[in-house]
Amino acid sequence: MAPTVGHLHYPKENLTSSHKLRKPLVEKLRRDRINTSIEQLKALLGPEFLRQQPDSKQEKADILEMAVSYLKVWQLQPSKRRQAQQQPPPPPPPPPPQEAEARGDGYARCVQEAVSFLSESRSDGRLLDHFLGLQAASGQAASRVVSPPGSPLHQTGAAAAAAAAAKDGGGRSALWRPW
Question: In this predicted structure, what is the pLDDT of residue 28?
Fold first, then answer.
């Protein structure tokens, strides 16, 4: 004869009291999850919901119905979504000529101010040479911007480089540090 496992006996009072304590807590957590999800749906569907029912109170059932109807429409249009995803966005239109010219003038002015600052201070000659190269590459002459004669902005690129080298100690530059 096979051995049998005896019937385990748990006190019924202990099970029911813990069950009675746990059940309301579990139910409250479940309701909180439902309400949080409905609030998220409400936030996602907010503009759509207000367009259809602008002055009415939003009930949970209305929010769920809106979500279901939106998903149904969304499922019926997969080919349109695929086409929209496959097409690259159109390139932005080119800026008007005045805007491009203004941007170039602003860039040239910025480079000239950097050259002026670097010429006045005892900074690294390599950085000054870099900005002078940018100024020459942009095709903007230093004299294009109105500046008083004798100022570093009034000098041409070669003259500014020579002035910077003379201030720097004849070609021997100090070590540049970013701080």
Answer: 93
User: What is the Cα–Cα distance from 40 to 137, expressed in whole angstroms?
Assistant: 55
Mention every residue, 6+ apart, whose C-beta is less than 8 A from residue 35.
60
Instruction: Please name the residues in contact with 70: beta carbons below 8 A apart, sequence gap of 6 or more.
Output: 45, 48
If you ran DSSP here, which 8-state letter would residue 150 be given? T
Residue 61's pLDDT is 84
Structural domains of the chain, with CATH: 16-76 (4.10.280), 100-168 (no CATH)
Element (H, E) at 145: none
State pTM to two decimals.
Answer: 0.34
Residues 6 or more apart from 94 whose CB is under 8 A from it?
100
DSSP H helices, the chain, are 12-52, 60-76, 78-86, 97-120, 125-137, 157-168
The Cα-based distances of 55 to 45, 65, 70, 112 in angstroms read 15, 17, 20, 60
Q: Alpha-carbon distance 66 to 80, whole Å?
A: 21
